Amino acid sequence: MAAAAGVVLLVAGCGSEGGTDKGGSSSAGSSSTGGSGGSGGERLTGAAVTKELTDAATAAGFTQDASGEQIPAEAKDCMVSWTADAEKAKDPAKSYADTVATLTKGGWNEERKTEQGGSVIKSLKKSGWQLQASNHSAGPLKLVMFVAVDSSPECAAALTAANKATPSS
Fold first, then answer.
1. What is the pLDDT at residue 2?
2. Are 132 and 123 in contact (CB under 8 A)?
3. DSSP 80
């Protein structure tokens, strides 16, 4: 669980520092187009984000790695982690690209892309949620994961509480 706390801090930090949308989370929910998983402008739930990620990733050829990040129970409505079993995918880079393409078609807006040393990290946003899509499958370690965090003040408080409750090892 200490790893989940680190991911929470990493993703939450990436969504709030250096971006073009600093402090705009309250208007993000009302500007939703209601794409797949959206419900008429209401904020997405953790369950809806999980479904969108699962549907997009499995359609692209990924299966979920059950040993991926475990989200603390108190943060499940505010954070979603989906780790692909990239070793089982025929072409992890293509499956990653196809997953991201499906998500953008479903209303996720790509805000940022970083490429370094064969790794690709894309930052997407939808209805107050910030998603980090990471592909590190070019090297010997095959890791593809998707981590989404609700940027609402309520979830910021819940994630902070979850980090404090999770002992670091």
1. 37
2. yes
3. E
The three-point CA angle 81-116-59 to 5° equals 40
More confident residue, 56 or 167: 56
Identity at 11, one-letter amino acid code: V
Flag whether the pTM goes above 0.70: yes
Token pair recorded at residue 160: 């902070």
Question: pLDDT grade, residue 6 (50/70/90)?
Answer: very low
Rounded-to-integer distance, Cα 9 and Cα 143, Å: 19
Cβ proximity of 1 and 74 under 8 Å: no
**DSSP string spanning 82-151?**
EEE-TTTSS-HHHHHHHHHHHHHHTTPEEEEEEEETTEEEEEEEETTEEEEEEEE-SSSS-EEEEEEEE-
